[in-house]
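Tutorial handout. Part one gives the primary structure; part two gives the three-dimensional structure as C-alpha cells.
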Amino acid sequence: QVQLVESGGGVAQPGGSLALSCTASEPIPGLNAMGWYRQGPNNQHPMIALIVKGNIAIYGDDVKGRFTISRDNAKNTVHLQMNALKMEDTGTYLCYARGERTHWGEGSQVTVSR
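Part two.
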C-alpha cells in the first residue's frame, strides 16, 4: 500500500513563505498526477497545485503567481513553495497522487495569521 508522507507547513504571517513536501513510500504505478489539495467541507477539496503527465504544472486560480510546485522523480517527491501567503491560504493541505489508484496523504497544517 502506497503511503504519502507529508512534511513542512506551519505558521507564517501574511506575506510570508512556507514550504510543503510529499514523498511516496514507493513508486506509484501509472502515476499521472501528483500535488496538493486543500481540505474543504463535504469532501470538496479545492485544487491547489498539480504536476500532471508531461511535467506540466497546474495551479488553482487563488494561488497562481504565488505558489510553485516541483517534482523530484528520483525521490518520488513533490514540493510546494508557498510565497506571498494570505490569511485565506490557511487550512489543511492534502497530498494527492493519481496512478492506477488514487492516494491521499494525512494532511499538513498551514496557518497564516498576524
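Part three, for discussion. The chain has no helices and eleven strands. The chain has a mean pLDDT of 96.
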